[in-house]
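**Backbone geometry record:**
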Amino acid sequence: MTNYTLMADDELVKLFCAGQNNAFDELLLRYKDRLYSYISYLVKNDDMADDLFQETFVKAIMTIRQGRYQSSGKFYAWLTRIAHNLLIDQFREESNLTLVYNDEKENGWQTLQGYVEPTRESQLANEQVLADVRRLMEHLPAEQREMVYMRYYKGLSFKEIVDLTGLGINTALGRMRYAILNMRKMAKQYHINLY
């Protein structure tokens, strides 16, 4: 049995590329607490920190699997750069939203969206996107469909999904990645706009 704990990060990445998923599990164990603390310190919102943490590891897995990871001996720095870029993207996306302070809440800053009724047009657009996603989900393999359902329709974090299903974090992230890739491919094939 291979002892991954004694290996350097770049060795583990190479083993993961070669199909040894346990090598990535070791990388996850090494850096999950530090990375989560880094993200949590920046965003000061547990839900957002959970989402960014999960997105960071999904992006890391996708980049490594696509052979685009450049070995530099600084795996953790690379992870934090991914998290930082995702955070910037998140703030850019939300930069057009007006923030208001609600002193009845612990983390009082909220977007004005929480106080404004959505227009009927935006409700219809959201309903159409959800209907399209449900139709696409029907064509996914069962394990991918289950992952999408638990994550987006039940609102479970990857940690909760792993606890419920008994899967490894790498397996859960991988299934979600393939589900999203398959749904994007189907959406493109059938000219469905999911935005």
DSSP finds eight helices and two strands in the chain. The helical segments are 9-17, 21-43, 46-65, 75-94, 120-137, 142-153, 158-165, 169-189. The domain at 1-116 is CATH 1.10.1740.10 (Rna Polymerase Sigma Factor; Chain: A).
